[in-house]
Structures are given as C-alpha cells and as structure tokens.
Amino acid sequence: MAATYTSDFGTILLFLIGGAIFVMLGLFTAKMIRPHRPNPEKLATYESGEEPIGNAWVQFNPRFYVVALIFIIFDVELAFLFPWATVFGRWELIEATDGAWGWFSLTEMFIFIGILILGLAYAWAKGHLDWIKPKPILPQSRSNIPPDVYQQFNARQEIKRGIRAKDI
To answer: Is pTM beyond 0.70 here?
Structure first.
C-alpha cells in the first residue's frame, strides 16, 4: 500500500485549520472561565481615563497627520543612515579607494540630511508644526425646553454617578 502525502498547499491548509481551531478553543475556554458581572462603570466608554463629552463624530485635527508624517520621514531617515554608517565605517573600503569612497559617502549623506532639513524648515516656515487648538463648535438646537432644565438634569446625573462610584 502506497503512502499518501499532502502537497505543500495541503500542509499550509492544515496549519491554517489548526491555528483557527487553537484560537477558537482559547476564546471558548476564556468565555467559560471568566466572570461575567457587567455594571454601568464597566460599560462606560473609556477615553484616556476621562468621561467622554459630546459627540464621537468630531472633526479630527489634521495636524496630527502632519506630525505623524514628519515622524515617519525622520524614522525612515534613520533606516538609511544606519547602513550608510556601517559601510562608511569599513576601513578596507576607504583605504582601497585612497579615501575617495569616504569623502563621496560623507558628501552624499550631507546632501541627504540637507534635503531633509530643508523639508523640515519648509514645514516649519509654512506653520505646519505650530500647534493651534481648534475652537470647539457647540451644537445649536432649536428646542422649546429652557437651557437651565438641561443643566439641572446634568447635575442630577453627575450626583448619581458620584453615588454609584462610592458604592463600587
């Protein structure tokens, strides 16, 4: 009787199925073991340790993206500087070309860093790095209910939250 072996794709499929079973078994075991006691404090939205105020669909400040892009640019710069530094530090390469390789690589890196510094200076001059807090836009509603009724309701809710926090 000839032995049958699975192909490479069959082996991958078996690993995928085994991995999925392993994950499902872990999730099922965790669900069976863990305690399930929800309360209002646990069901509240967590936002950096503070109570969220207002609508979650707020305009996100685009300056976060600019800062993130500048960080990525300089992070990639370090990825280019490390191999350059390891090659530039090899004396046998520098001596083989009578020092021309060393001066060439040093000039090349100064040009590279200079272009990045020019880009940073441009972003700075254009004001992309200035952090200005946007003014919040409070929603306007056309309600016949006086605003002090809302304030009284919010005050009562805060008192109830304070009592609940002390009970827990």
So the answer is: no
